[in-house]
Write a structure and sequence with these properties.
- With 100 residues, the chain is mainly alpha-helical.
- The protein has a domain of 48 residues.
- 72% of the residues lie in helices and 0% in strands.
- It contains three helices and no strands.
- It is elongated.
């Protein structure tokens, strides 16, 4: 499975945040702190927790689990990096519209 429950919840939270930025203009200008937060969030924190939850779920009922069985889990890092890049582009576009 490509996404698990944690991933779907995070995508819903991201969608709600983007809707808040668009509708209520939460962020009025772009700055480096915003990009640093997005980088840390999508580059390290969210993928780490996503992998952690998936590994715990996968090994819960298994007596023996080898590394090859959980190889797909490590591809979540590039997926979340791609989602982070898309998020930066969306935020840039939404903030640019807010300025004008």
């Amino acid at each position: 499975m490509l996404f698990a429950t944690f991933d779907y919840i995070m995508l819903i939270v991201i969608f709600i945040f983007n809707f808040g930025v668009w509708k209520y203009k939460i962020i009025k200008k772009r700055n480096r702190i915003l990009y640093l937060i997005v980088f840390l969030l999508f580059g390290l924190i969210v993928p780490y927790f996503s992998v952690d939850f998936e590994i715990k779920k996968a090994v819960k009922d298994q007596p023996f689990v080898d590394g090859f069985t959980l190889l797909y889990v490590y591809f979540r890092f590039p997926i979340w990096w791609f989602i982070g890049i898309i998020e930066v582009l969306i935020l840039t576009k939404l903030i640019y519209k807010t300025k004008s």
